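Bit of a strange request maybe. I'm writing a small parser for structure token strings and I need a real example to test against, not something I typed by hand. Could someone generate the tokens for this chain?
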Amino acid sequence: MFPCYAAGELCASMNRESDKTPASSRLTALLGPTNTGKTHRAIERMLEFDSGVMGLPLRLLAREVYDRVSARIGEQAVALVTGEEKRVPVRPRYWICTTEAMPLDLTADFVAIDEIQMVGHPERGHVFTERLLHARGRLETWFLGSHIVEGLVRSQLPTVHVTKLPRLSRLVHKGQSSLRTLPRRSAVVAFSMPQVYELADALRRRRGGAAVVLGALSPRVRNAQVALYQAGEVDFLVATDAIGMGLNLDVDHVAMAGTVKFDGFETRELESAELAQIVGRAGRYLRDGTFGTLSPEPELARATVQQLEAHRFSAQSFAYYRNAALDFTSMQSLLASLSERPPRAGLRAAPDADDVEVLRALAQRPEVAASAADSALLRALWDVCRIPNYEKRIPEHQAERLAPLYRQLATEGQVAADYVDEQVRKLERYDGDIHTLMDRLSAVRTWTYVSHQSGWLEHAPSFRTRTRELEDRLSDALHERLLERFVDPIERRRTRSSDKDRAPDASHPFAPLLRLGSQPGSDARSERLDRVERLVSARFDDFTISARAELSFEGERVARLSRGQTLLRPVPKLDLPDWIDAGGRARIERRLLAHTRDLVSHLLEPLAMMGADSAPLRGLAYQLEQGLGTVAKRQAAPQLEALGEGERAWLASHDIVCGKQTVYSAPMLATGRLALRAALCRAQLGRDAKLELPSAELFYQRVSPWLERELALLLGFVVLQRSGAPEPRADARGGRAGEVWAVRCDVLEALLALEPQGALAAAMLMLGAPHEEAQSLLLALPRARKRRRRKS
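Reply from user aminoacidic:
Good idea to test on real output. This should exercise your parser:
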């Protein structure tokens, strides 16, 4: 359902639809402090267009936005592209990406780049500058970020329209706190891993425990740690400045344990604008937040406090730049093009990043220098150098790690599967402490990245699956180590006891996981996490839905569709045990909401391209969508009368049948789609409705006298009064009295087309019906009624 494409293939599906890019795109800069709703506004604006791309600064943030958008419109319409993950459906309309992974040749109506103030980041700034200067939507382009870049953006984009947003809640200084006086629902921020661990250990001893969020953690571990905090199992979060990049957390107070960090080049004091990104995580939406320091860190200077509370900071005066139009004629020309000076004022040459340092180190090797005389091989070398340095090796050691990959690409055209298998096998261990597991996770991310590069591996999909599963298992092991070290055992026993008290009954799909906890050597928590993660990461085809609107995963019910705003917008109601925490439930709910949107998109797929260039066809398409593929002909009469011969031929070529009584889409009468139509109707009727609906597997059937004609049409059936039965009449319950039949609309049209001579025998054969029933159905047909009236 979600095939993976290489970078060069990512854009084909959208570019086929439109090859024209306008001379200009409306440029908007949406600027303001944290908690102004910038990202939310950009998402809403993007969804107003037919297509869009959004670039985000973190993989975790990209995944969060992807979950939000796919929950709105379904995963079949949304692609997720990061360095290590590509979920690309067949025809995506919207692309959610990390900024570095944005497909540059993609043509879309709308483009948004988040955290544009990152143009001033020494290592990554040149990428954001490149997007600022050149990334454009066909119709509209948005740049989101801090107001400190207003002047810089105006100087680089003279036609930009700047919109300034105020913070939705206040940010108030609270002074210095100790571990004892630190308010609950606080995040403590430090800038080194040893300090993070020291603080989390202290909170475990004094306050029961803390969740830990580090930039080096995998998304799965960070999600699990954040869920631990969000669900209230611990009241404190200890983190690096990774929480400053737009992650949504229910934090009331941010305490700075330090204000000095190593930025990759030097150790320095944080600037006020950088502090604002971090302490601005306090408060959410309209709830005020507070900030301060954690002793022994002294209180912030009064001038700094005033800047943070008033959101007034020094302007960002420059953006880091690196030439993106590289020259692959020779090694010297490549290095020279990477060092090209900025072309305009306001841009500053970016310091050499890891990829350039690794290129310089590899260029010193005679065998590399010789093979790189070929421009194709030089491009391959540059692609290898751009593999992210997840393990934070010094450039020389990273070059040593990457040299075998380039050598195999240069000599064999691919990386040997045996070589990758050997490297991955070394990492398939789950013992060791926190540091050991984190090192393995970093190494696995390298091989996940390699497996996503086009043409590098012969069996790339299997390696992707293998490294993803390995990362998941290592992540679960690391999460357990973090719990063991930073959450008090008494708290864990309390949590597990609470889990036991809330255990589901034996018939519940999650009950076997609880039984695992009583088996020697088993780890119920790890099994539960794995079950939740499998559900959250499941593909569209991994779910099934019954005609009674019950959603199942791996053969067990997990939700039931219920009434939404409209028939086509049902809402999944979770059927999960209480021991799944709030974070896990929210992620599962988003996944299932996305799945319900995909269900509707899948159902209506035969109508997706209908009426693009014709007003009558668009009107008919709308009626068919609202009718789930079937509409009474009398209701569609105005649209049908306006159709020309060409449009009628177009309908016939797309299996839209205009019969004597109904207009219907033939593909929408497939058994699977009829069952899905029944599920949507059942959701709309409500769980307590006792009315039995027509079976999708039968051509005709007796139905309840209270089955409304409009509801039957939604299910693909037409209600007929059996000949000889009393005429239907309304009773006190608003239903219908007397026996009725439901006949599938295509079968009805076929019966209406029968010649009078031999009609009974043909109907018996067509329906597989006995003589009496076939005769009754023929007499119940609309034309038969007219004949009876004329005869009388």
